[in-house]
Amino acid sequence: MDFLTTVLLLLVGVGGGAALANALRSRSGVTNVRHESTLLLERIEKVFKVVMAEGYFSEIYNYQDQKKILYLLNDPKKAMVIAKSKVLVGFDFSKVRIRPSENGEKKLIIEAFPKPEVLSIDTDYKFYDIQAGILNHFSGADYTQILDEAKRAMNERALQSDLPKIANNQIQYMMYQLASSMGWQLQLPEAEQRQLDVLKAQADNTTNYKQLTTGE
Questions:
Q1: What tens digit of pLDDT does each residue of 56-99 get?
Q2: What is the pLDDT of residues 41-58, one digit of tens each?
Q3: Which of 54, 56, 111, 184 could cross-link to 179 by cystine, CB 3.0-4.6 Å?
Q4: Measuring CA to CA, how many Å separate 90 from each of 51, 53, 119, 163?
Q5: Which residue, 112, 113, 116, 111, is CA-closest to 91?
Q6: Is the dihedral of CA 160, 162, 163, 166 positive or negative?
Q7: Measuring CA to CA, which residue among 91, 89, 76, 178 is closest to residue 129?
Q8: 94 is a domain residue
């Protein structure tokens, strides 16, 4: 038996063995799936962020991209994404500027207070009605762009809702109560102070009404 014949027999044997193994694997229903993941920790930062409001949103996002074939024919691709999100709104206290009163009073003067911001968005995405074009196909970059745009839309919707106002009212009244419990006065910037005075008046009216109705 010459060398060429030996090589051909070996190749046939290897091919037949692989075919037999695949047939047995498919018949037994056993698949060999491997999952690998790598976790990289880039950095750790100390933060002082407080969540004061939580909201749940649903968003339907329609994506469409037009592409010309030979500058004549439209080759569109489109997809519909349904996103359900939990949005947390609160404050970054590292941006607060606060000082005690200079005349010896037990008063905390807040010179600057940050606006409420979206601290996190936890979103579940589902794709529906994905239609690729003839040559205009979806790529991984397209899906990333769709998810980024849907998340930005959810962020804008949350900021346009009542969540920032609720968070602002919550933090102002909480700080007022905390300072009062320790015998301190709280002085906010002018606009925030007016808002706090309104909240205190509403709280006092609610307390007085409860006392009148319960006879306490």
A1: 988 888 877 767 665 566 767 788 888 888 999 999 988 888 88
A2: 777 877 788 899 999 988
A3: 184
A4: 4, 7, 6, 9
A5: 116
A6: positive
A7: 76
A8: yes
Give residue 1's domain range.
Answer: 1-31
**Domain annotation covers residue 39:** no
Shortest CA distance to 89 belongs to which of 149, 148, 162, 152?
162
The structural domain count of the chain equals 2
Q: What are phi and psi of 45, to 5 degrees?
A: -125, 145
Cβ count within 10 A of residue 161 = 15
Residue 133 contacts by C-beta under 8 Å, 6 or more apart in sequence?
Answer: 67, 75, 76, 77
98 and 165 both lie in a single domain: yes
Whether residues 155 and 94 fall in one domain: yes
Pair 23, 58 in one domain: no
Q: Which two tokens stand for residue 8?
A: 């051909």
- pTM of the predicted model, to two decimals? 0.65
* Co-location of 62 and 123 in the same domain: yes
Q: Residue 56 has what pLDDT?
A: 92
Amino acid at 88: L
